[in-house]
Structures
1.
Amino acid sequence: MAATIKAGAAEVSAATSGLNPYQGPPVGDNVFAKITQNVSRVMEVPKPPRAWYIAFGIALTLLSIFGACLGWVVWEGIGAWGNMVPVAWAFDITNFVFWVGIGHAGTLISAVLFLLRQNWRTAVNRFAEAMTIFAVACAAIFPGIHIGRPWLPYWMFPIPNQMGMWPQFRSPLEWDVFAVGTYATVSVLFWYMGMIPDFATFRDRSTSTIKRAAYGLVAMGWRGSSRQWHRYERAYLLLAALATPLVLSVHSVVSFDFATAQLPGWHTTIFPPYFVAGAIFGGFAMVLVLAVPARQFFGLKYIITIKHIELMAMVILATGMVVGYAYGMEFFIAWYSGSMYEGFTFQNRAFGPYAWAYWTMIFCNVVSPQIFWWKKMRSSPWVAFIVGVIVNVGMWFERFVIIGTSLARDFLPGSWGYFIPTPVDYLTLGGSFGLFFTLFLLFCRYLPMVAMAEVKSIMPEAHVAHGDHH
Amino acid sequence: MSTDNDKANDTGSAPLHGLLAEYDNPTALVRAAEKVRDAQYEHWDTYTPFPIHGMDPAMGIKPTVLPWIVFWAGLTGCVVGVGFQYWTSVIDYPWVISGKPFWSIAANVPIAFETTVLFSALTTLGAMLALNGLPHPSHPLDLKRRFAKVTDDRFFLLIEARDKKFDATDTRALLESTHPAVLDDVAEDRVTSDKLPTVILGALAVLTTLAILPFALAYKARVSKSDQPRIHLVPNMDNQPHIKAQQESPIFADLRGMRGDVPGTVAQGNLQEDDHLYRGKLEGGAWARTFPKEIAPSEQNMKRGEREFGIFCAPCHGLSGHGDGMIHERAAALGQGTWVQPTNLHQDYLRQQPVGELYNSITHGVRNMPGYGHQVSVEDRWNIILYMRALQRSTAAAPTDVPESERGALK
């Protein structure tokens, strides 16, 4: 009786929100069922909320632009971009590092927070893992087209060939191939494995034959056997333990692309930790950008709560300050090294022709997160969303500042230059967001957006009462 | 109890698979599991929507060997990573890069690390699925409509009929003592086939064939010869309209790839109007006898001339200009018959020669001597002449040439 009244009340309050009439707080008698319902409804409703269609339309438009740009670059060559000597790494590599960076929060949340027993992660980890995979997919495209002959990317892999040649394993660029490749593979495994029990839930709830067959196929006949759960949990722990050093290694290796070069502004030992901190910072910001609208439009407010938003805001505040410290330390080292070229490079960053990019970065990454010192701001989802967007802009600029300004003015003034992007550059960058959001929106609609089994397992109701044998 | 919610229609005749008890919450299930464990059943299991902590001891589940499998896989990955890099870069394809050693372990750590993680992770998922017997397409429990809630919020315990201790009445009594919400017979599945449908098998066969096709074509291309031109996947990128020096170019009407100056224009620095400075000539065409006004006889220019003379002229003409430079000595030592000795610059006709003519000799060469105009800048050619004049003076000077204050030192 009480349950029906409660359910009725949830029905009423949801009707006013108008978007997902099935949302309700997971309290009362049948908490587990409520979680299942809240999450599965997005897949089950015949039509997703209108916001989904609008977002999907925009994402598809951007995706087509992306496709057109890539096609043009393949046909015409990378002369379609503004890249030139000395700035031969420009938007392409900036975008690569940007997307790979975003792809870090997913595994970090899934693996590192899992090992640290931060239970709150269960509400957002699936999101973050999906985001990771889509971001890595976007990232992988850029080195592929950057090589100039995009139909020969297999030259980067150790495949026996008629030239009798092997890739150069002493090169950081080759390390990158392995690091990013391994990271993408392990992230997909981790993501897929986490979804198996939830796929089973979807399978068991589906009414149409096609859906049952599709979800049944990917659920692989999971039936929640405790003997299977035992190995499953052990495997999950192992994957988390493997993914943790992996996630730290990936951005370190990416930073080696720069740190092992002689160029002032790149040749520095602070890069690996600085890149990893920046990746976590940017990645969490992206999680906020995705989670805030998703919880709003898909009625997941009771699963992704204000508390989760607040905790992520705190991570952003902390990592933002690590990044700020790294910016300061770069200047200190430039001065302390006594190297004329290092000194010049950093002076040039802050006051040279790219000063606008530098100060945009400082504002976005160092100043804007400071708002999270106030609890009120931390716990306001839309403030978090806006800061998330700003931080992502800032992180893109960080990579651009590192790559662009260092290359534009190095040792010889005679070889200086100024990089000016072409429209294809801008459209490719914008278009990559189309790929990202298209994949993400499809994920929201068809895959379990929240790790239901995990969320259930940390509910108080999931704990076995001790002592009282009835 | 009831079998009314079974999905299959002929379960009545099917043999018993087991007894299925359903519970409302994890605690009840764990208590029941403890009882079944203590009754020493073997073929039984519990089914839950999420992993329940405390279930492993309650069911007496032994720790899985999975971590050991993963450990060995990781070790294999590491050995493969190191070994493969060693084999390619030291044995199969040694390649000198900046004089670095072929094998330097630090540079090979990142990739060895990645392969370690990759092998371990793939094995973790693969071994977990294999140990769990997944994929597992059909199961008698699937015929129970209520069992679908196992992935939602219900908790189940199944004791299989094949267990040695299974007894229709005793086992039922045991389960009833655990107060299940529902207790039910499960019939063997006689409806569902474990075989893959022919449609799927056919589709798989077609896909496999299609997947092999590109590799087969690539292989054929590698082992066979063809006199056809190669296939250009992206003709625009392959055939770029860039030209090399002296080549034809269809882009221009006259088909000349190299382009001359646009008529009526002069490239920067190429406007050499001053005959005196650039050609050593006076207006009427006679050799200039004076230095152009741009080249003042200063200490600095003299020093510069000495330096340039040392670089460009001394190898042949000798540091003192007597025509006995190192190249000449070498040629003489080799007894080269065709060698013409570089002129001794301390000859009267050269002392008298107009500077403009000397300038011309340096720029374009003279008889057997090549020209140096393309190597030595205009200013430096004049500076060299300035220095040459000083050299010539040094071997043909009268005591009156020395300033009076210094003359005492000559005695």
2.
Amino acid sequence: MAEIVLEGIAKRFADGTQALQPTDLRIRDGEFFVLVGPSGCGKSTLLKIIVGLERPSAGEVRVAGEVVTGKDPKDRNMAMVFQSYAIYPHMTVRENMAFPLKLARLPATEIAARVEEAAAILELTELLGRRPAALSGGQRQRVAMGRAIVRQPAAFLLDEPLSNLDAKLRVQMRTELGRLQRRLGTTTVYVTHDQTEALTLGERIAVLRRGAIQQVGTPRDLYQDPANLFVAGFIGAPAMNLLPATLAGDRLRLPMLELALPGGPRGGSGACEVIAGIRPEHFRVASTVGEGARFRAQVELVEWLGADLFVHFDVAAPHGARLGALAEELGLPGEHDRRRLVARLGSDCRVREGEALALGIDAAAVQLFDPDSGGRIELG
Amino acid sequence: MNERGILERLFWRVGALLVIGYALLPVAWILALSLKPAAALGDGRFLPRAPSLEHYRAIFADAQFPAALLNSLGIAALATLASVLLGMLAAYAIVRLRFRGRSLVLGAALAIAMFPPVAVIGPLFELWRGIGLYDTWPGLILPYMTFTLPLAIWTLAAYFREIPWDLDQAARVDGATPLQAFRYVIAPLAAPGVFTAAILVFIFAWNDFLFAAALTSTNAARTVPAAIAFFTGSSRFELPTGSIAAASVVVTVPVTLLVLVFQRRIVAGLTAGAVKG
Ligand SMILES: Nc1ncnc2c1ncn2[C@@H]1O[C@H](COP(=O)(O)OP(=O)(O)OP(=O)(O)O)[C@@H](O)[C@H]1O
Ligand SMILES: [Mg+2]
């Protein structure tokens, strides 16, 4: 168990790829810390630097106060679960789990006891004699976890451990993983590109983009107070609706309507371009808002999920260069002169595709971003 | 079963029999010859009328053949060991490390394999005489190693490439030194490749006549293929056909055994289950 501190860690590969910008990160003792970001943003690289499989080009890694930057992975007492599981195919489940203990030269009785214990925790007892080839995907995943927990390591490093499982198993294993970590209380760094996984598992989350950390915070922080456009667009499913808008005093002019922002006019007197972010749940069917501004949405698609109803509609709005690039990076829907928005409404709303619907917006919940820097503009 | 199925099976059976017959006929002929008494060698029959082991007794009675057999076994085994061991390390480095000139090494290895051995025999003969390797075991092991190493490297590199890199890294994180990761994880997984390479190298060394004939002169290092060529009949008017046949049968046995024993080990798909596939 240990606190992991990264100071000024950067990584540049021999071929010139700058996989990580200088990064500072403090992962607390016993914390479930999640690194999330799109594919290729440097998550695995960061994890491999922590575990020692890659050397950082600059900076320092400290575990429990001790500098380990130059230490060999075998001496770091960390356990890693690979995306591919990387369990040894020529060994049985028992041998797989015993392997790190054998290397550590533990006495045979101790090894047997620890393997039995870990197997019991992970419900692998019946499978101990099997080879990996005769296991299902979920079982292999558990073997990989088992090999990690038998060692009682200083930290667990998990690199997308669930991404090879089918959707149902993924949800189940996610819950089990969270429970296991709380039970063991071991510092855990969990890498994923799936923001749902990040939000459900992480005590704290770091959002990574192109090798640079965008924001570190609790799931609630990231969702409610995204530091910039990227985090706003990345966290949350369906994604936050992003629209070009004009801010003049306390009036926010959106493509489909004008809103009065609470808290009175802001400093600058002139109108300025901003990007407005509205979460799907901050739309209301207009009659329930009462007096507030409303607009008519032409419903393109309705998704009914029992408790929620997601209504998709288009808004004519040319997006600037920045929004376009971001939409492309995050795979957000919409064409160059139309934005596809999503509203989450109560399932009692009986709207159908092709119909028009009057919607209002919860003005207090609208978030504004600088179109040039992408940074958050604080309101009030 | 329908008519077409029967015909198809018949076709494959007959075809297989033809091929096997074609391949084994010379072997059967040699075996038959080796069992014929000296007087009956030219009788024009395929099967010996009265099988006798006299040629076998004769070749083992002479000191030359048992010595050659020992030389062959020792030299081939040592050359195989050295070549496969070096080949494993080289192939692993080539597959796993990114060093300058990686493809150059592979290319150079291939070029050596293409190089005609005949071209080096003359210089090698002079050189070996000069440095005292002529007619010694190392004098044959070295060229065998050199000419089979590329084969071993290429075969093994192909196998190593199939082993996910994550497995090395997992072993390193689990507390293994690079050498331990290689020994406990990578080498066992590459076992089919190791056996394949070993058999190929062994057969090359075992069958070689060229180097053996040119670089040896006495029982100290002369191997079986060369020794057979120096067989003499019991009188100067008699061809040693029977002895040659018997010796040929004897040298075939170890190679056949080797292949049969290790064939079971050369099973593909040993890495199944390492990663989700
Ligand atoms: N050995 C290497 N040599 C050169 N570039 C590399 C190397 N390993 C990774 N990279 C590059 O570094 C960047 C970050 O890679 P990394 O594997 O950390 O991404 P990731 O966030 O884990 O992505 P994914 O979600 O797809 O696993 C990528 O652009 C990748 O191409
Ligand atoms: Mg990765």
